[in-house]
Design a protein that fits this description.
With 307 residues, the chain is mostly helical. It has 15 helices and no strands.
């Protein structure tokens, strides 16, 4: 793909992200002026509100339950503890200000990711697929006002550092991405794509171990976090006991960083003749999975067992 074509695609994607951000600004203003159904009103910025409430518990009681807005099921904290320090600056602003700062930060970091994409993604189809997952994830992440954009940002920095043979830097950025533990999938992805070897795991495992020392020193802290991971949240059900847990790990907004991991695998398939068929099969599996998990975890419970 030519640099000019790359530039055009990137520019259009950045414009799309900016338009989505403006749309989110407008809807937030409208929600403050008019009444909307609880399903919409209750979900708007709900994650940002819950995350702010979680900060009020302090670091020691980080995993204690937090109050949630009306109509929202209990959702105990399950991020790794250092999220407290990363998100703490947002607590210094009034909610009405901080929420817009978070939106702008999402737009800036996501635009950076888009503009850096051409250095990583050589295949045009892969690039379009990545932009699609970024766009979908960006909108959902912005609607609920979560932090998935930070995870893909840290993973991108980890990957670009790896490409420059800065292994320790790559490992440190990866460690920061584990705000949500499911980003640990990045390691098997790198191994599968043959970007690192088993002997290189030390660069990634050691920073994680150092970062997680509080869980070793205070095992009750670890147990409380693990208990929150397996918590059965009212309204978040499924056909099996694993479905709600899987939902927490791979929500649609997680496409921002899961899509990035998928692209790394897709790019590694370039030397195979059936790369397109393999990529298409993986994409179909991913789509089918999200359709299934959304239906059984969210849609059906909301119809038959409304909160």
């Amino acid at each position: 793909m030519s640099d000019e074509t790359h530039y055009t695609i990137q520019r259009k994607m950045v414009i799309l992200l900016a338009l989505i951000t403006i749309f989110l600004f407008i809807t937030r203003i409208l929600f403050n002026i008019f009444e909307f159904p609880l399903l919409l009103d209750g979900s708007r910025d709900v994650d940002f509100k819950i995350l702010l409430e979680g900060l009020k518990n302090g670091l020691v009681h980080f995993y204690d339950p937090v109050p949630v807005p009306p109509g929202v099921p209990d959702w105990p904290p399950y991020y790794l503890y250092f999220w407290y320090f990363l998100f703490y600056p947002m607590s210094l602003f009034p909610f009405e200000v901080g929420v817009y700062i978070w939106d702008v930060l999402r737009l800036i970091t996501s635009s950076y990711i888009v503009l850096k994409g051409f250095k990583i993604i050589k295949n045009r189809t892969n690039l379009k697929w990545f932009y699609f997952t970024m766009g979908v994830g960006f909108f959902i992440d912005g609607w609920y006002n979560n932090c998935n954009f930070l995870i893909v940002f840290f993973l991108l920095l980890s990957y670009t550092s790896l490409e420059k043979d800065k292994m320790w830097v790559s490992g440190i950025f990866f460690a920061f991405s584990t705000i949500k533990i499911n980003s640990i999938l990045f390691i098997p992805v790198l191994l599968l794509a043959k970007k690192i070897k088993v002997k290189d795991l030390i660069y990634y495992v050691l920073p994680i171990i150092l970062l997680c020392l509080p869980y070793i020193i205070f095992p009750d802290y670890l147990l409380q976090m693990l208990d929150n991971w397996t918590d059965t949240t009212p309204g978040i059900q499924g056909l099996t006991f694993l479905d709600p847990i899987i939902w927490k790990a791979v929500q649609p907004s997680h496409l921002m960083f899961l899509g990035f991991m998928a692209i790394i695998i897709f790019e590694s398939l370039e030397k195979y003749k059936k790369r397109d068929q393999i990529r298409n099969a993986l994409v179909l599996i991913l789509i089918a999975f999200y359709i299934y998990i959304s239906i059984v975890v969210i849609i059906l419970p909301s119809i038959f067992s409304p909160i």
